[in-house]
Specification:
This protein is an alpha/beta fold. Helix content is about 35%, strand content about 10%. The protein is elongated and about 115 Å long.
């Protein structure tokens, strides 16, 4: 008959070095991982000057509203985001010299009003279309005056164009349950 041999008891595994390795891996991943941070909308605000609010004639203000259902209204008329750019350019430049529009681009103001329930995507898409309208106007003016793209001309020429067609977007404090239209 076979004789059973006495087995030695199992030796415990030293897990102390495992904890050290796990800790080092954790530190490695924390150090090498980049954390994405939302930067928001990059807008340079003018310097604060305490002055009394000025009354702006209605003819100089293009009213753009977004309600809590992300419905867009331009001058209290239902619109889509792909219409904003064309309407804004036409309003700012007023090529037909309509009496209910600004007499010059330097007097035009685009007023953006939104509801607290408006989605960030709808707000940002609308804002981007307004800024794109201004950029197209600057590009057209650079081509007309200098025969070059806006990004190719020097800074003094850019300033002159931006003085003629200044980017003026008025943003009101968000409202609760903005009425449709």
């Amino acid at each position: 008959m076979l004789k059973k041999t006495n087995r030695r008891p199992a030796q415990p595994i030293n897990a102390g070095s495992m904890a050290d390795i796990a800790f080092l891996l954790l530190i490695f991943f924390l150090v090498t991982t980049t954390i994405v941070v939302d930067s928001g909308i990059a807008v340079r605000l003018p310097p604060w000057v305490p002055v009394d609010p000025q009354e702006i004639p209605d003819r100089n203000v293009l009213l753009v509203k977004i309600n809590a259902h992300n419905e867009l209204f331009i001058e209290n008329q239902v619109a889509s985001t792909n219409q904003i750019r064309g309407i804004a350019k036409d309003f700012i430049m007023n090529p037909a010299q309509l009496p209910n529009r600004p007499s010059s681009p330097s007097k035009a103001v685009v007023s953006l009003v939104h509801d607290r329930g408006t989605s960030y995507e709808a707000y940002l898409e609308t804002y981007n279309e307004i800024v794109a309208a201004y950029r197209e106007l600057w590009e057209n003016e650079a081509q007309r005056l200098h025969g070059q793209s806006y990004i190719e001309i020097n800074d003094s020429k850019k300033k002159a164009i931006r003085k003629t067609i200044p980017l003026v977007i008025s943003e009101a404090e968000p409202e609760d349950h903005l009425a449709q239209g």
